[in-house]
Specification:
single chain, about 120 residues, alpha+beta, Nucleoside Triphosphate Pyrophosphohydrolase, 3-stranded antiparallel β-sheet, 2 helices, 5 strands, about 25% helix, about 30% strand
Length: about 120
């Protein structure tokens, strides 16, 4: 699982999140994730199953939804918009300080990763 350390703004710098971003008008969630991974990480991805439920954000103005994704091709993720990137196994998920909105997704990811990676 790939986690990303925020580089800013100062109140969240150094906290960890999952790659992705906002869905643009007329764009599907999957298309937004493909675009965001290209912009933030310089990689192409294939979108898989959704993980966890909706996580309300921004005083109810938006919702966080997370999907599994697989790298396409030989590109390796680069921290184009983050301070650091880290691949983590299920047992490593607690090794970084997650943004509060990402914590429920971390909990939902743990059994998914354990089942896939044994």
């Amino acid at each position: 699982m790939l986690g990303c350390a925020r580089s800013g703004p100062p109140e969240v710098a150094g906290r960890w999140e999952f790659p992705g971003g906002k869905v643009e008008p007329g764009e599907s969630e999957e298309a937004a994730l493909i675009r965001e991974c290209a912009e933030e990480l310089g990689v192409r991805v294939q979108i898989g199953d959704r993980v966890g439920g909706d996580v309300p954000m921004g005083h109810g103005r938006s919702v966080l939804r997370v999907y599994l994704a697989r790298l396409v091709g030989d590109d390796e993720p680069k921290p184009l918009e983050h301070a650091e990137l880290r691949w983590m196994r299920a047992e490593e998920l607690d090794s970084v300080p997650w943004l509060p909105a990402d914590v429920p997704i971390v909990l939902a990811l743990r059994p998914v990763l354990a089942a896939r990676c044994g």
